[in-house]
Design brief:
This protein is an alpha/beta fold. The chain has 11 helices and 9 strands.
Length: about 400
């Protein structure tokens, strides 16, 4: 629920009543953990959310920070814990490319720009890890947030039991390809950033936010090295069969079986990696399209539900056997939101936030109220509750 702070803001773009309704629904479903953007860098990138938590002048958005305070306070009332994400490798919340633009005279590469085809964006982003000036700004944000006192509850973030973990970034990659990856610099960035958080907060976990093998350029040794520092408490894995061309959303009946097999292998590989590191594993993003590749909430979700059941079955089996999988976060909660435009695209000024971020079709992967997927989520939540 990346947008929780936006709904929580006492501002024109906020909707505290809706936030309360969504949290009530999630709590009733048995959802006990939400991953939230606790950063957004406002800048020049196309499709990045506005407003941001900060801008190029170093001005922090107190209304949006207040929205994060409010969201945490409301989650705490319902026994829901938060994973707070501190920046983004991708463009939809500004992220690393925007930090670079702050310090390099305004230069940037837009994701999906035909003039800079993949992996140009990801390779350009890799310079963030070695930019002292960009990382000074990033770490200033870390210090400000980790030492913040919630203005609603009066509890310091570093003491707040509603927070489960800090996350260095959403899906940090060392680069777009191995030729552009400076691995020692990347590993150093991971450890130094995590160490800074631990120096300010001894009460909470720290994770990288990595996709796992896909984010590690398919190299197991990168996953192991990235998650080996003692300051990193658990591994993360993200699973996107449609994005990774394991399935074709326009032919799910014909491609589902292949995706199912590759998903099983991917989960198994990460269980092995976590076992080798002797650290827990959270499958913290997994998403699947609606039947026919539709973005319409009235479209069925037969294959999506099968995919969710596969992930949940693997997680539950690991939990029951004392394996490393410790939890799951499906991507993502759309709830009562609905696309505002016939083309299902997000436009600046839209406030019907949903789990599908601004750069994606609105309704592509998120779970709406009324979806049959909810029954699968409830069943899994109940099964996990019985284990504990």
């Amino acid at each position: 629920m990346w947008y929780a702070a936006y709904l929580g803001a006492d501002a024109s773009y906020g909707d505290r009543a809706r936030l309360g309704r969504e949290l009530d629904t999630l709590a009733a479903l048995g959802v006990r953990n939400l991953r939230i953007m606790a950063s957004a860098e406002e800048g020049p990138l196309r499709n990045s959310i506005k407003p941001g938590f900060r801008n190029a002048r170093g001005v922090f958005n107190e209304a949006l920070l207040g929205g994060l305070d409010y969201a945490l306070a409301e989650m705490g009332k319902r026994g829901i814990r938060a994973v707070l994400c501190l920046t983004n490798f991708w463009e939809w919340s500004g992220g690393m490319m925007t930090y670079l633009s702050y310090v390099n005279g305004g230069r940037f590469v837009d994701m999906n720009d035909p003039a800079h085809p993949w992996p140009a964006f990801a390779n350009a982003n890799a310079s963030f890890y070695r930019s002292l000036r960009a990382n000074t700004l990033y770490r200033d944000w870390i210090k400000a947030l980790v030492t913040r006192t919630n203005k609603i509850t009066g509890v310091g973030y570093h003491d707040d039991p509603t927070i489960m973990a800090w996350q260095l970034a959403n899906e940090p990659r060392p680069a777009g390809d191995l030729a552009h990856a400076n691995l020692p610099v990347f590993y150093s960035w991971v450890q130094e950033s995590a160490r800074l958080i631990k120096s300010l907060d001894t009460n909470h976990l720290v994770s990288t936010g990595s996709e796992g093998l896909k984010g590690a350029l398919e190299q197991p040794e990168i996953v192991l090295a990235e998650h080996n520092p003692p300051e990193i408490d658990y591994l993360t894995a993200h699973i996107w069969p449609n994005n990774w061309t394991w399935v074709n959303q326009n032919d799910l009946p014909g491609t589902y079986a292949r995706g199912e097999e590759l998903t099983a292998d991917y989960v198994s590989e990460h269980v092995d990696l976590a076992t080798r590191l002797q650290k827990p594993l959270v499958i913290e993003e997994f998403g699947y399209p609606r039947d026919g590749g539709s973005n319409d909430p009235t479209a069925s979700t037969v294959y999506k539900d099968r995919f969710y059941r596969q992930i949940y079955s693997s997680a539950l089996a690991s939990m029951a056997a004392g394996g490393p999988i410790a939890g799951t976060n499906f991507w993502a909660w759309n709830g009562e939101a609905r696309a505002q435009h016939p083309d299902y695209r997000f436009k600046e000024g839209d406030h019907q936030y949903m789990g599908d971020p601004p750069h994606e079709p609105q309704g592509w992967y998120g779970v709406f109220q009324g979806d049959s997927t909810i029954r699968t989520i409830v069943d899994h939540a109940r099964a996990v509750a019985k284990l504990s």
